[in-house]
Design brief:
CATH architecture of the largest domain: 3-Layer(aba) Sandwich
CATH class of the largest domain: Alpha Beta
Radius of gyration: 22 Å
Shape: globular
Strand content: 15-25%
Distance between the termini: 28 Å
Helix content: 25-40%
Oligomer: single chain
Length: 443
């Protein structure tokens, strides 16, 4: 798949280096393309199934089950079905978006569920219970392949006894609106949900398990990706309570959740043990973009793939970093995932658009500079945009249209401003998610 034809904005299309820039952005997205990532590590050779260095003799396996969930579930499952064919016994796939007719045909031996994201819904609950039911049927002679990608935490859920789906929806909304980091949100999810924090590994016991993961979490800690459904939970209920306290949410949190978190856990159930493979990540995508940038003649380096914090603060910092550089042509690549603390604001946008908006004033008047933000899943917040393009002319163009950049930033209302400028990037859902990227160009 190439994303070149989907990467457009008025400013980008008019730039003399537009093709090179699009090649760089496209390379980042293609590096995390789910089918290619699966095909790279999963092989079936005669009577052996190989996942990187791990080998399974198919004569020793009675049933192979597939459980796929996340934004890349459809593509990852499709690649796996094509590789394993009739060796697969049964599968469950949970996705945010409907399947195409072509994909449905490939996945005809699997049951497909659509579910809610970023807030779990009734469909998420149904999918979670269906997966737990399937895993309860496995034996020591079976192998379960888990295909896990960004969005998995919301797409499947099975609340602890005493907690309702509405309680989980409430706490997720409160945390998102308070600017909590994704790892902090996942700490709560692991404490409150039977499929998270190793829950699926417990449910699959005594079967063998193997997890292929597209990481959507900064630095790829296994317990944080989709809330770690197949790995041990390193955090405690006390950690979860501390996060609620940090964001002053204790009095707003449903009482049933507080009750659960105050109870002492004594979980002695056995877990299925298996291998975990990171097959796509922000670092992998950043390195792919770097390689193309070098080929295109840019002096290139990756500043970090661990960027976190308030989107508005980081956007301004990146703009100042770009202004301070003396090298050209230059491409600086930044990866990570920022947050937006909404407060009482009612604007429309996402963290990548806000980060771009926060760079507008700092870059005003700067010649031959460009900042681009990009959500690798193609969806930034609740919008159809993945990010935006900013240059030294963006502020004056905004003023000419009667747009107040400071006010839009204060109201977290980036989308309408960049939409008016025709400088939103809308690559459509990419079918993958490995966090966000920003590109700083000096020409």
């Amino acid at each position: 798949m190439t994303f070149l034809s989907r990467l457009h904005s008025k400013t980008l299309d008019a730039h003399f280096q537009h093709l090179a820039i699009k090649q760089i952005l496209s390379a980042a997205l293609e590096a995390a393309e789910p089918q290619k990532a699966v095909q790279k590590v999963l092989k079936k050779e005669k009577n052996f199934l190989e996942i990187e260095e791990q080998s399974y003799h198919l004569d020793d396996i009675e049933n192979i089950y597939l459980v796929a969930f996340g934004k890349a579930a459809r593509a990852m499952a499709s690649a796996t079905h094509k590789i394993l064919g009739n060796a697969l016994c049964k599968g469950i796939i949970v996705s945010k978006h409907p399947l195409s007719e072509k994909t449905s045909e490939v996945l005809k031996t699997s049951e497909v569920f659509l579910a809610g994201h970023p807030i779990p819904d009734e469909r998420s609950l149904a999918a979670g219970e269906e997966i737990l039911d399937l895993l309860s049927q496995t034996t020591k002679n079976d192998l379960v392949l888990f295909l896990i990608s960004g969005g998995g935490s919301a797409l499947i859920t099975a609340p602890e006894k005493g907690i309702t789906l509405a309680d989980l929806q409430n706490i997720t909304s409160l945390l998102l609106g308070s600017g909590a980091r994704i790892d902090e949100i996942n700490t709560l999810r692991r404490a409150l949900d039977r499929v998270k924090g190793g829950g699926l590994a417990k449910a699959a016991f005594p079967a063998q398990i193997a997890s292929l993961i597209l990481s959507d979490v900064v630095d790829s800690p296994l317990e944080a990706i989709a809330s770690g459904p197949t790995v041990p939970n390193p955090t405690t209920n006390a950690d979860a309570l501390a996060i609620l306290s940090k964001y002053t949410l204790l009095t707003k949190t449903p009482s049933a959740i507080i009750d659960i978190l105050n109870k002492k856990q004594d979980d002695k159930s056995k877990n299925s043990k298996g291998k975990t493979f990171i097959i796509g990540s922000n670092r992998i995508s950043a390195e792919a973009a770097r390689d193309i940038a070098i080929q295109e003649g840019f002096k290139t380096h990756i500043l970090t793939t661990s960027l976190q914090g308030e989107a508005s603060e980081k956007g301004n910092e990146l703009a100042l970093h770009l202004l301070a550089t003396k090298e050209h042509p230059l491409c600086v690549i930044v990866g990570g995932e920022t947050t937006v603390t909404l407060g009482d604001a009612t604007g429309f946008g996402g963290r990548n658009q806000e980060m771009a908006l926060a760079a507008v004033e700092a870059l005003s008047g700067a010649r031959d500079k460009m900042l681009i933000t990009l959500a690798t899943d193609g969806d930034d917040g609740p919008t159809d945009a993945a990010g935006a393009v900013v240059t030294g002319e963006t502020l004056e163009r905004s003023k000419s249209l009667g747009l107040d950049v400071k006010n839009h930033l204060r109201e977290h209302d980036a989308y309408p401003l960049f939409n008016a400028l025709d400088d939103l990037l809308k690559p459509e859902p990419t079918g993958t998610n490995v966090n966000d990227l920003a590109f700083l160009f000096a020409f």
